[in-house]
Amino acid sequence: KGKAKGPKGRKITLKFAKNSIRISFDGKRRLDLSKLGITTFPNCILKLADVDELDLSRNMLRSIPSSIQNFKKLRWLDLHSNQLEELPKTIGRLQNLFYLNVCNNKLTAKNLPEELNLLKNLHILNLGLNCLDSIPSSLGALTELREIGVFDNALTSIPSSVQELPKLTKLNAERNPFPDSSEEEENADLKRIETLYLVQDKDLCHSCLKMCQEERDKMNNLKNMTPSPPKKPSFPLLLTPNSPAKDNQEEWRLR
After folding, report:
1. Exposed, middle or buried by CB within 10 Å (0-12, 13-18, 19+), for 156?
2. What is the pLDDT of residues 221-243, one digit of tens each?
């Protein structure tokens, strides 16, 4: 039996992890371990807990250990597209966290820790594509939150404490089973908030990206379709000094 080729399923060593650190455009140290087929959290990276950003997206992780709290400086945590069924309570101790993406996992409302409301500096939160039938109203304590995604879940309502967050400008709650009869009244505020798609183009496969772009173009075309007044026919050659019909325009008139 030969070993699997390529990075998928590769055991993460400390040396490999060190070589995976990149410096972002704003000088932050980013540990990128995405798309490696990782099934368990690599404990060796706890020795690199001074990084500013951690990307474990597009793997096969089922859980995140409580030791995630050791990443004291962490501002950016991307866990999207794994198989996470819960988040550790200690995630609330990441007081510097600015961005948290747990989109496309298997999270339920029951296993969404209340400690998320301790992330006082959180600006962007993506909970889309999970199994949430409710959102804890305690998220209303995240007064710095600007953007939130809860699309493609099983939500029937959005807590008013979340809708009324003072700095919230973008909310994507599409494709949830909101009751038709009360959606307009109970979720009226949602329509006044700009739609947000937190998944970046670079994270999509070619076919998905093409489909999204086509849908986006269709929507833009519909928005831009405004009736315009009919244009009057223009015959500039009949009016210009060099017009060949200048000397005999009677022949050009409709009879």
Report:
1. middle
2. 765 665 555 555 554 444 444 44
